[in-house]
Amino acid sequence: MAAHNLPKCLEPNSIIPTDIRFLFKLGNDSVKEVKAQKVILAIGSDVFEREFYGSINEKKDEVTIVDASQEVFQAMIDFIYNKQPNWKDLSISFLCSLYYLADKYIIGS
Q1: For FRET with 6, which of 13, 14, 55, 79 sits at 20 to 30 Å CA-CA?
Q2: 64 SS3 class
């Protein structure tokens, strides 16, 4: 039941605050972001667990991502939060990028 409610944590009107922002710099000097809660990411990924709570334990609330688009990274975060995409609507390129992130962050099904 709790996993079913996880997507609510990412809704803009959620009263549960986010504590990490992933930043994506665009060519025109603008920035896109993806917000999340560290503890939920740590539960979904050993890499995030080590980064936020383990020996790496980075005490920052912003991380710049350079090897993925904001859209693909958001899809990975959505998956961790138990949001299920319509896989048929995603391009092969998008899915390959998503697979790369899932492998990098050690995210299983």
Answers
A1: 55
A2: strand
